[in-house]
Amino acid sequence: MRHRYIYLTIVTSLVLLLSFSANAQNTNSDLDEYFKIAVENNPKLQAEYKAYEAVLQKLPQASSLADPNLSIGYFISPVETRVGPQLARFSLTQMFPWFGTLKAQENVVALEAEARFQSFLDARNKLYWEVASQYYPLYELKKLVQIEKENIEILKSYKSLAERKFSSSSGSMVDVLRVDIMIDDTETNLEILKQKEKPLLTAFQNVLNKEVELEISEDLTPLNFERSLVKDSLFNDHPLIQSLEYKIQSAEANERVAQKQGLPKIGLGLDYVIVGERQDMVLADNGKDVLMPMVSVSLPIFRKKYNAQKKEAQLMQESYELQKQNVKNQLDTDYESTVFEIEKQLELLNLYQRQIKKTENTLEIIWKSYSSSGADFEEVLRIQQQFLKYRKLKARAEVEFCISIQKYEYLISNSAN
């Protein structure tokens, strides 16, 4: 078990630097790079890893013997013996727990470290989702700014034509004023969108915990989705489930520790007594110091604390089992709602794409009619607004789809990612 943790400590840096690519299948290359930056700099993720490292430091604590006891005594009134007076005593004692106790304690900590490492993996996977949730609104903002700018240019061309129609008495001044009002609205919307960039960028950089030069792709990767066909065991390898599974095993190991600690402890010791020489007679071994090995055994007769420790471990096992079932239920609920959201956005994207095409064709026909007759200008503006609306809705659906895809990737993620 210890060898596994030495191995984990070595490779975790590689996990931090390289593992982001495993969950980036539905994202673009710019976002992949931001995943890497977030993994390297996000304070919440770094805190999770530090907590894992802290648990690793408990391994040598759990597998170490108790400190030996050294006692020194000086006889104020020397005890007279046949070979001389006892002047001082030195005692050294080392207690040893029952066989297998230290190994059992080490296993408890090792399993706790496994659970903490799974929590770190979950935080890493969740971070991808958080980065995507902050990145894609910036993509939407860029799209909306582009749409509004194009709309302003189109409306200005409408205004120019309306003015010419009015000058030639084939149009109305109302048409000019109407399009002028729309231009004013659109320019205001554009200004608001530009102001919105700062808070969105700040939120994004705070997730990365680093200031970056933002690069946003012009278009997203092909938007497609294939639902996982195997759901019964879909969440078994999710880091949250794995973390609770290791906690269950740790509680089982803690129960074995309670049993071991309820057994006697064995102490080995050595007494050394300094003996002074007798001056009143000559004796063999006169003044010879005394060396006395000792063995001691603890008597764990007060069983309440050991029974309580064992019961505590059993109750924690039941608690973690219930938590695991609750997490599975929550993951299942989130999975179904996320799949629904993904499929809904795909349906909306298809709808908006069709509507954009239809309104574009309709607008072209009505515009030709107005250009030749000067009639139906209000209808031209109405269809133009519809065209604008569907383009904006399409951008929103793209963003919602990509964020939901990243959440889906988190939900089906496992500790091997």
Automatic annotation (TrEMBL):
Domain of life: Bacteria
Subcellular location: Cell outer membrane
GO cellular component: cell outer membrane; efflux pump complex
Coiled coil feature spans: 303-362
InterPro entries: OMP_efflux, TolC-like
Major subcellular location class: membrane
Signal sequence segment: 1-24
Gene Ontology MF terms in the entry: efflux transmembrane transporter activity; porin activity
Xref: SUPFAM superfamilies: Outer membrane efflux proteins (OEP)
Entry keyword set: Cell outer membrane, Coiled coil, Membrane, Signal, Transmembrane, Transmembrane beta strand, Transport
Family: Belongs to the outer membrane factor (OMF) (TC 1.B.17) family.
The name this protein goes by in its record: TolC family protein
Species in which this protein is naturally found: Marivirga salinarum
Taxonomic lineage from the root: Bacteria, Pseudomonadati, Bacteroidota, Cytophagia, Cytophagales
